[in-house]
Structures are given as C-alpha cells and as structure tokens.
Amino acid sequence: MQPLRNFLSFLCLGALSWRAVAGTTYFQSSDYSGGALGLGPYQTYKSSSSTPSAWNFVVPYNDSTSDQIESGLIFVAPRGTNVNSPGALIYDKTGELVWDGTHFGQTLTFKMATYKGDPVILLWTGSVAGSGVGSGYDLILNNKYEIIANFTAVNLNGSLADFHDIEMTSNNTALITAYQAKTWDLSAFNITDGWLLDSVAQEVDPSNGSAIFTWTASDHVDPSSCFASPGTTGTSADNPWDFFHINSIDKDSAGNYLISSRHCHAVYYVASSGDIIWTMGGHNSTLTASDGTTFAWQHDVRWHNDETQISLFDNEGTAWELDSSNSRGLLLDFNASNNSFSTNKQWIPYNVTVSESQGNVGILDSGNTLVGWGQIPYFSEYDANGQFLYVVQFGVGDVQSYRAYHYNWTATPDTRPSVFVETDGSNTTVYTSWNGATEVDTWQLSGSTADSPQLAIPISNTSRSGFETAVSVTDSTKNFTYFQVAALNSDRKIIAYSNFTASDGSQQDPAANQTVDSSSSSGSNSTGSSSSSGSIQVVVDSRMITAVFVAVWTLAFVV
Ligand SMILES: *[C@@H]1O[C@H](CO)[C@@H](O)[C@H](O)[C@H]1NC(C)=O
Ligand SMILES: *[C@@H]1O[C@H](CO)[C@@H](O)[C@H](O)[C@H]1NC(C)=O
Ligand SMILES: *[C@@H]1O[C@H](CO)[C@@H](O)[C@H](O)[C@H]1NC(C)=O
Ligand SMILES: *[C@@H]1O[C@H](CO)[C@@H](O)[C@H](O)[C@H]1NC(C)=O
Ligand SMILES: *[C@@H]1O[C@H](CO)[C@@H](O)[C@H](O)[C@H]1NC(C)=O
Ligand SMILES: *[C@@H]1O[C@H](CO)[C@@H](O)[C@H](O)[C@H]1NC(C)=O
Ligand SMILES: *[C@@H]1O[C@H](CO)[C@@H](O)[C@H](O)[C@H]1NC(C)=O
Ligand SMILES: *[C@@H]1O[C@H](CO)[C@@H](O)[C@H](O)[C@H]1NC(C)=O
Ligand SMILES: *[C@@H]1O[C@H](CO)[C@@H](O)[C@H](O)[C@H]1NC(C)=O
Ligand SMILES: *[C@@H]1O[C@H](CO)[C@@H](O)[C@H](O)[C@H]1NC(C)=O
Ligand SMILES: *[C@@H]1O[C@H](CO)[C@@H](O)[C@H](O)[C@H]1NC(C)=O
Ligand SMILES: *[C@@H]1O[C@H](CO)[C@@H](O)[C@H](O)[C@H]1NC(C)=O
Where is this region: Disordered (predicted)? Predict the structure, then answer.
C-alpha cells in the first residue's frame, strides 16, 4: 500500500519533519483508544469545515497484507452523541476523507448501487425516533453528487421511508422499509387501547414514486410469536409495540423477497403474493437447521451465489438482552432441495463483544469481507480465509455507524475546489481540497494580481496528498494577490478550476475561458479509488513503529 510504503521510506530517510496539515490517522494509538484524544476524535482542515472522524488502525495493514486489500473506498456514516458532525462520509483506505456528506444530516443506510446502468449513492435522510425507527426520504446521488431521485414510502397513511434499508433491484426499483403505528388488540398483554408499530417492506419505483409491492408484517406474522414483548410499550400511538422490527430486504431472481425481522430472530422468504414461502430462524422456522446456525437480533440479510448462500450480521444481543459473548458475521449455506441450512463461515470481531444494534456484512468479489460492527465503532476487513487484513476503530465513546462498506466509487463533483490562503509572516501557503473528488492526481497552482485578477500565471504542480493538499508559495511568486488551483487528473487533463482566492478570503470567479468538459471528467467507467499519490499524514505515537513492524494479527475464523 502506497501510503505505508511512503511511511516506511520516511522512517528510513529519517525525515523527521513534515506538515501535519491534512488528515490524521493513528496506528495502535493508546491515546486514541484510551480516550485521551476525546471520545470522538476528528480531523480538521484549513480549506474545509469538514470534521470527519479520525481512524485508529487497531490492526494495521502492511506491505504484505496490503496487496490483498482491494482497491476502493470506505463508506461509513458515524453517528452518536460523541460524533462532531454526524452523517455520510467516504474515506480512502488510509483514513483520509474523500467526501463529506454530512450536510444531509445524520444517516443510516448509505451505500452504493447501480441505477439505470450508472453507479450511484443511495442515502437515507430524515429524523430518527427514540424508538429506533426513522421517517424521511431516500435519495439517489449521481457521480457528481447531484440528487437524481428523492422518494419515500407511499400509501401508508403518511408513514415515510424508514432508515433501515434501501436496496436497488436489477429492474431499477428500490426496496425500502417503513413503520406504521396502528391500533391493535393487546388485551392478551393486559393493555387496553393497544398500539402496534407495524413493519412494512415496500418496492418503489424511484422515477415516479409509485409502489410496486407492499408487504405488511402483521398480515402474515402473529405479533405474539416473536421475541420482544410489549414491555412498557403498546399503550399509545406515540409508544407503539415494535413486535417485528424490519431491517433489511433483498429480492432474488425469482422475484421473491428476503425480509429480516430483528425482533422475530427470523428471515422470511416472501412471494410476490405476500405469502411466506419459508421462515428461517425464530420460533417458527420451517427450515431444517444445523448446529451453530442460531442467530438473534440480526441485521443485513443478503442472498449470495445464485441464492445458495445467505449472509447476515448476527448481533446476538439487544439493549435488554445478551445471548452470546460476541456478535458475528455469518454466512449460511442454503439447500433449497431439502429446505435446510448450515453454517459456512463466521467472522468474529477483533473487539470480542456484543454489538447490541446495527452492523453489516459485505462480501467482496475477491472473497474478502468487510464487516461493520454497528453500535461499536469498528470495521474490519478479512481475507478469504478469515484472517484480519486490518481493523479500524473510528471512535471511542458513543460513536456508531449503521453499516460500513468497501466500494469502487469514482466521482467528479459539480462544485469548485476550495482554496484557503494562509500568510504567516513572509511565508504563504495555499491549502486546497475538493469535496468528493476521486480523480485528482495533481494540483496546479497559479497566481494573479489585483490588476488582472482572472489572469492565471502558473506557479507550480503538486501531487495531491489526501483530502487537503498544502502548497508553499516561493519567494519569487508571493507578490501575487490571488491564487487559483486547477485539478489535473492522471492523464494531466484539467478537470476543474477553483476561484481565485486572496489571503483575506476575497474571491474572483475563474476566467471565462477556463472551462472544463464535465462529461469527460466524470470518470464514469474508470475503476477506482482516490488517486492519491501523496503520503499519509500521521501523528507519531510511541506504539506506531511497533504497529508497522511487528506482526499483529489474530486468527478469528471459525468454520
Ligand atoms: C426530498 O423531498 C422532500 C419532499 O419533497 C423534501 O422535503 C426534501 O427536502 C427533499 N430532500 C432533499 C435533500 O432535497
Ligand atoms: C394480565 O393480568 C392478569 C391479572 O392480573 C394476570 O394474571 C396475567 O398474568 C396478566 N397477563 C400478562 C400477559 O401480563
Ligand atoms: C408460530 O407458531 C405458533 C405456535 O405454533 C403459532 O401460534 C403462531 O401463530 C406461529 N406464528 C407464525 C408467524 O406463523
Ligand atoms: C424484474 O421485472 C421482471 C418483469 O416484471 C420480473 O420478472 C423480475 O422478477 C423482476 N426482477 C426483480 C429483481 O425485481
Ligand atoms: C470494545 O467495545 C466496547 C463497547 O463499545 C468498549 O467498551 C470496549 O472498550 C472495547 N474494547 C476495546 C479493546 O476496544
Ligand atoms: C475495484 O475494482 C478492482 C478492479 O476491477 C477490483 O479488483 C476490486 O475488487 C474492486 N474493489 C471492490 C471493493 O469492489
Ligand atoms: C467561488 O466564488 C463564488 C462567488 O463568485 C462563490 O459563490 C463560491 O462559493 C466560491 N466557491 C468556492 C468553492 O469557494
Ligand atoms: C517560513 O518558512 C521557513 C521554511 O519553511 C521557516 O523556516 C520559517 O520559520 C517560516 N517563517 C514564518 C514566519 O513562519
Ligand atoms: C513578482 O516579483 C518578482 C520578483 O520581484 C518579479 O520577477 C515578478 O515579475 C513579480 N510578479 C508579478 C506578477 O508582479
Ligand atoms: C485564457 O485567456 C488568457 C488571456 O488571453 C490566456 O493567458 C490563458 O492562457 C487562457 N486560458 C486558457 C485555459 O485557455
Ligand atoms: C470508458 O472506457 C472506454 C474503454 O476503456 C474508453 O474508451 C472511454 O473513453 C471511457 N469513457 C469514459 C467516459 O471514461
Ligand atoms: C503483515 O500483517 C500480517 C497480518 O496482520 C502478518 O501476518 C504479517 O506477518 C505482516 N507482515 C509484515 C512484513 O509485517
């Protein structure tokens, strides 16, 4: 991995000073994990107000394991009381920010998909109720981060899209979740005037907002057949009993739906008629289970390998109950010929503990797997043999991410790069960043004078080094009033111009002849990752050298 190689050569060269201007990543830092840096350590920049969570590699990757790590970027959405700015974030694999989407607010489902042939982002927006469900809108963003669809649940007496899932089908329809409070006879629980929080799975066409399929849990599952009793809930419309708790929907080639119920500890395979074809897990399983397959309070249930395997995040606990010593990622083999299932493999966390909520399992094409640990602020990538490739901690206190993903994502935003000019005595430094851009290789710095503010006079070229790049202005050119950067891609083509910006913050638009062809800069079919060729900015921690050179790995793979 490039940054680590750079870091190793940096150690060898003994170059002990560098500008710690860009993001900060930690390696096995006890200051980080012990809370000395705060409960939600975050990075800051000069050219951007973004404050993404800083990472601590509790298991770092090295030159040998990095070759097994797929190219691509990490999608997480930190939330919780110790998160400075909750919301969607894309990072490169070194922990450098790529895109800050926190202007959309706190989110839960935040993932990549293919919509009408193009790579897109799916992002839930809205408000989260104390009961652990959401009400809002699902967005589709293109690779310029423009909103190309904004849709929600329909025909549910005003209930809007919940945050638990958005899954795009091959027919360009979206599978979404919704919750609906309704009156229900709960006299069996000694509750008069009872209220149920029903779960709904809906298939919606984002292009026109219409519903193609609507499945309501209480029509098919007896509320008293699950694991969460009403307790103190069920008494009013504001305090309804969430008996089912839908949290994922998948659809297969046969047109049937795979619906996860956390509170029933069950996965329902549902026909387009709404009828349940089979039930996996819970009190009413209709399949034959092998040992070790029991799951509880699970999330993120997905088909794999032509519907012969199912992955899920087995929480093994909830706020009021622990069923095991740890959560796990779980891959089940499903045998349709005799309606049985068995364990293929499981992924055990580095921090062997129960994540009481959230979590996901992302099996990559190579066989590597990225597991997001939900309520506890970790994600880990495993090789195909179940060995850790790396483990990242992204917070210490109440820092959570509903899911974590590893994707190839390329984007060229429909905005201008940001520039901040800092003058310190006789020195001038130009800081630049471009939120969400993945195709920048080099920043070309130009200057101009107050007489001709839009006349760009080239100064220097600097390799992009993470989210923010700092460029020192040499003595002979610091008599410029304004500075501008042009973003060059790896083909040395200019894909964006910034404003001309002065040290007092005043700005001038790019010149009229500084135009770029946005269609060719979008990189829609390039494979990719952030094309950073710069070095990772690190804070030296006394344990970091150990982190890099000592073999640190834990075999946590159990068949
Ligand atoms: C999505 O649509 C809803 C309803 O029109 C609107 O309130 C909301 O602001 C939209 N979201 C965004 C990010 O534009
Ligand atoms: C309902 O109340 C009756 C009488 O107090 C009691 O015997 C019964 O156990 C209660 N049932 C439940 C489900 O709490
Ligand atoms: C589960 O089984 C119980 C007992 O057999 C039954 O009362 C209940 O209705 C069943 N629930 C479902 C969802 O089939
Ligand atoms: C796509 O639409 C076709 C035709 O309506 C249907 O047969 C198929 O099941 C659908 N597939 C999915 C994944 O929705
Ligand atoms: C493991 O996670 C729990 C819950 O977040 C936390 O309290 C504990 O400190 C973590 N342990 C380590 C070694 O990080
Ligand atoms: C990204 O694309 C490369 C090249 O096609 C591929 O090897 C890699 O597996 C992909 N990464 C992910 C996370 O899908
Ligand atoms: C560029 O300048 C325009 C005003 O001309 C301003 O609206 C815009 O926000 C500036 N863009 C950036 C990225 O600073
Ligand atoms: C200007 O930069 C030089 C070289 O990096 C440094 O030695 C000097 O201290 C800086 N001056 C100020 C005023 O920061
Ligand atoms: C800036 O100063 C240098 C050295 O004095 C001079 O050669 C150069 O022409 C000046 N540039 C501008 C744009 O005035
Ligand atoms: C824009 O016009 C100026 C003045 O004629 C010229 O110096 C500059 O090279 C032009 N820039 C581009 C990108 O064509
Ligand atoms: C897509 O890839 C093809 C083949 O590599 C290339 O010819 C074409 O220019 C690419 N298109 C874009 C928009 O990058
Ligand atoms: C790299 O990390 C792996 C797994 O953590 C370990 O097995 C291996 O020994 C390490 N290699 C080096 C050169 O440190």
Answer: 504-534
